[in-house]
Amino acid sequence: MKCYHSTYLLKSLHLQGLFVLLLLMCCFAFANTVFAQAAHPFATPEQRLTIPTTGWFAEFSGQMAAWQGHFYRQLTGAVRAWKQDGWAAWLLLVLSFGYGVFHALGPGHGKAVLTAYVLANRETIRNGALLAMLSAFLQAFVAIALVAIAAGVLQISGVAMNRATWWLELASYAMMAALGAWLVYKHVLKPLIHLIQEKLKAGQGRHTQHTHPVHGDHACSHGHDHAHDHAHHHAHSAHAHVHDESCGHVHMPDPNLIAGPLNWTKAISAVLAVGLRPCSGAVFVLVFALAQGFFIAGIAAALAMGLGTGLTVAALASASLWVSQATVSATGGAERVWGKIFLTGLQALASFAVLAFGLLLLSAAVVSGTTGN
Amino acid sequence: MMMLKNLCAGLILMLTQCLILPVAQAHPHIYIEGGIELVFNPQGQATSVRQSWLFDDLFSTYALQGMTRDQAGQVANAELEKITGEWMTALAEPESHFFTKITLAGQPLKLGAPRNARSTWDPKASQLVLSFDLPIEPPINIDAQGLEVDIQDPSYFVSFNFKGGVKALKGVDSPAQCKFGYMPPRPLDPKTERLLWSIPPTQKELPENLREAVRQLSHQFTVKCP
Predict the structure, then answer these.
(1) How many domains does chain B have?
(2) DSSP designation for B44
(3) CA dihedral in degrees (A130, A134, A140, A145; nearest 10)?
């Protein structure tokens, strides 16, 4: 069905190059707005970026952070208590779980990036929750592995461990930016290019009707399968196309088709992007437990934190997906114009959000890595 | 819904001004129990402010991680000296400046380079303490208007506590007429407190309404010698 002429292909390549160039310029603009910041005198492996918010949300996340602090301060006592009395293990587990919950609700980027990703990718609620749990547990496992290897086996210093965490951070943020760029390309640029191509083709089609009688006025109603990279064996019947005469129709795959099983290649990159950098609270507790000769308590605490964080982010991501789906239903379903506009807009916004988070976090990490530590 | 709103707020910010500043997390990660001594010379002039900071368990363990220790768990001196040096260099940066402001009658005093900086580790009590002197140059006579020492981490990353209140400040060879006072950080109303917890510390200018609140959060020690 590739019904466009080779010149169109050439034109589209030019267009795509232009968009990539624009995207890169935008990246640099972002990076330049990132100001150098001095590291804190007592450096710890702590994330360095949060989106400044005001109003009730800032108040809410501040309260969450305050509660997180209350749990945090009791962790060492709980590790010691467990060492004395096996039954006191539940105290550490409860405190760690609580820490994880309020850590996820407080200021931080993990939940935002994950939620944006599942919205951009239109995952099902089940998959969204699964991804949240996976990335939270990956975070816990990375912390456990980092402390076990760096502190337990190699016995490197706290400063060197900050450095190791920084590299994990860098990898995680680079992955996030790449994922964001890919989402923007797929959900914003590609459909846009497709739309422009069709407009051009429609114009050209009329002008060149005498030389290309085969294309004619039908040019625009063909050629719509090349822009979709999901399961092609569903063929045309699967697309919720509006085949009107005006040629300006919106190409939207039926959302019911996307909400299938998880695409693991994409899912793994999202989980890595969020979960590769360990949470500093988990690292601290693990190092403390190790120094107490009671590493198992640290592992239990890190896993309980992961469970708390995972369940909370899963709930947030599911709620966002549910709201998005409910909005679509309220506007008459994904096949209707308003449902489509909402979904496309949301997808675009969420894609940009992942890219923006990735770029900002990445440049903040690079800046802090070159000035601090 | 909250996420959506957060997301939208973030995106609107991004798209309209492209000026989202990356900032550190704004809640305490390190807890310090502090102690202060104000040292006087034989002429009755204040010469230096000596501080000792006892770090919390988690930070202490993390900071000492990987250092060589003897049988009793004591950390090698060379290692402690090294980390002390690193901390003092970082603390000297104007942004934090030892988390200490010293004023005489409201005017900031000129302080010399810190002396006698050392860290001690007590393995039995598992206590790590950093202590140092900030010399007042030149030594000054404290009058009735008084000297004030404000301790606070402006980034709110370190949370200070002075258990003994005014007793946490000791005078060394202080003239008899000197009176010590202590004003703890004034509890903020819940709304301001929540706002502060969410304020990015690297934001150079705090909003007007929060600037006074932040001053209110420092530990203020006063010495008056009428």
Answers:
(1) 1
(2) S
(3) 160
> For residue B133, what are the β-bridge partners?
B50, B115
- Beta carbons of A40 and B29 less than 8 angstroms apart: no
Domain ranges of chain A: 74-207+244-371
Secondary element (H or E) of residue B21: none
A48/B24 touch (CB, cutoff 8 Å), yes or no: yes
**Prior bond of B187 cis (ω within 30°):** no
Q: Which two tokens stand for residue A201?
A: 């083709």
Predicted confidence at residue A338, as pLDDT, reads 82
Q: Which residues of A85-111 are buried (b: 16+ CB within 10 A; e: fewer)?
A: eeebbebbbebbbbbbbbbbbbbbbbb
> Is residue B111 in a domain?
yes
Q: Average pLDDT per run of 10 along chain A, which is 373 residues long?
A: 44 55 52 46 59 60 78 89 91 94 80 88 88 94 94 85 87 91 89 88 62 41 41 41 40 45 80 88 92 93 96 92 86 78 87 88 75 42
Encode pLDDT of A350-362 as tens digits.
Answer: 999 889 888 888 8
Q: Is residue B201, in this structure, part of any structural domain at all?
A: yes
Structure tokens at A373: 């530590």
Query: Is B90 part of any domain?
Result: yes
Nearest CB to B65; choose among A53, A57, A287:
A287
pTM for this predicted structure: 0.72
Given B59, B194, B202, which is nearest A37 (Cβ)?
A: B202
B183 versus B26: the higher-pLDDT residue is: B183
Q: Which amino acid is at A329?
A: S
CB atoms within 10 A of CB A275: 26
- Across the interface, whether the CB atoms of B10 and A53 are under 8 A apart is answered yes
pLDDT digits (tens, 9 = 90+) for B20-74: 332 333 466 788 999 999 999 999 899 999 999 999 999 999 999 888 888 888 8
- Model-level ipTM above the cut of 0.90: no
Distance from CA of A207 to the nearest CA of B (A): 38
